[in-house]
Amino acid sequence: MLFCKTFTFTVLAALSLAARAGPFAPAAGQPGTDAIAAADVRFTLWATSAEITRGPSNIASANPIDVTYGTPEDAIGPADATPDEPYPAISLGDGGNAILTFAAPFADLPGPDFVVFENSFNARFLELAHVEVSSDGIHYFRFPSTSLTVASENIGNGGSVDPTDVRNLAGKYTAGFGTPFDLAEMRRYSPELDVQRITHVRVIDVVGTNVIALGSFDAAGAIIIDPYPTNFFSGGFDLDAVGAFSQTTTTFPAWLAAHGYVGIAALPDADPDQNGMPNLIEYLTGGAQIAVSRVPGITKLRFPRLAYRSGADLALESSADLVVWEPLAESTNAGPLISNNPAAIVVETGDFLKKTEVTLTSRQTLRFFRLSAKLSGTP
């Protein structure tokens, strides 16, 4: 929300800054912050289009009127709002949302992967938003958020939010500094999401009231408090930009480079991150393991395969003694996984992220299974 700066509010916020602290990262510029500056050299991608659904300036009004400030173009390209010039942004209003599309998808790497920028002019005047990601523009998955701000009363338009009480909500930081999000966290919460190929980010304004019927809630079901109502034509979350660090890689050399692996660490069978999975298999599967389920006479094996990653062959193999391994099914250079054993039935679904299921009809009770990989064209 813009145009509500007052001397009184600024002084009160400054006086209360050290009153208490929550467990999460503090404001930009303070020790331990995870705020990321708009000028960070890691940015390689910025959203190239924005679809905006506005919300009202006051959702509780008998005659709610949608906010009008800004245009979709204000949310694309590099972040350019600053505390002194917070104006290049678009207001979403209560419960409004923005869907940001990227011309090239981006991927999960160690550390934060993308950043959402708001236009706050003050370290405590924080208008918050949920953040969701998608790898197809249809199915969206929300980052699990936490809000510890006391919800016993609404804080009003001039109220303040301590950033150390907020996690995984956009809008934690002043203009020029964004809130980071790490796609690795979504592996546990949303296994259906392809974290190696994110195409869309959705930002949804938090309605920061403690009125249950109107409010917003964090992942634990706690009500989220932020300045409310912001009954202005520029009310609600003000989106400046969304930027990402690493474009999705489709070749093994590019994947190695994105991870910074060189020398011995870049060998196909190396495991520099010590996660128990060789580089080449991690490249082809995104790092997921084989899931095994059994009923009498039938064994089902499930694992993902990234169909857009070429240059290597992937095989599912079986053994009775961990010495001799026989192939059950193979994928050549990103092609479909094809059974080469009459006891193995292969079904793959999905376009880019292949959900692979191999059903084995066998009376054998003790078998071991593994994935193996080699660079295409090598013996």
Give a short account of the largest sheet.
5 strands, antiparallel
- In total, the number of domains comes to 2
Report the total helices: 4
The low-confidence runs, each spanning 5 or more residues with pLDDT under 50, are 1-18
Using the alpha-carbon principal axes, give the shape.
Answer: elongated
Assign the CATH class of the largest domain: Mainly Beta
Strand content: 25-35%
- Count of DSSP strands: 22
**Average predicted local confidence, pLDDT:** 93
Report the end-to-end length measured between terminal Cα atoms. Answer: 62 Å
By CATH, the superfamily of the largest domain comes out as Galactose-binding domain-like
* Topology order in helix (H) and strand (E) letters: HEEEEEEEEEEEHEEEHHEEEEEEEE
Q: Which architecture of the largest domain per CATH? A: Sandwich
Supply Rg: 24 Å
Strand order of the largest sheet: 1-11-6-14-2
Estimate the helix proportion, in percent.
Answer: under 10%
Strand pairing plus helix content: what structural class?
Answer: mainly beta
> What is the quaternary state of this protein?
single chain
The name of the CATH topology of the largest domain is Jelly Rolls
Structure write-up:
With 379 residues, the protein is mainly β. The protein has four helices and 22 strands. The strands form six sheets. The chain has a five-stranded antiparallel sheet with strand order 1-11-6-14-2, with no helix packed on it. Strands 3-5-12-7-8 form a five-stranded antiparallel sheet, with no helix packed on it. The protein starts with 6 loop residues before the first helix and ends with a strand. Residues 1-18 have low confidence and may be disordered.
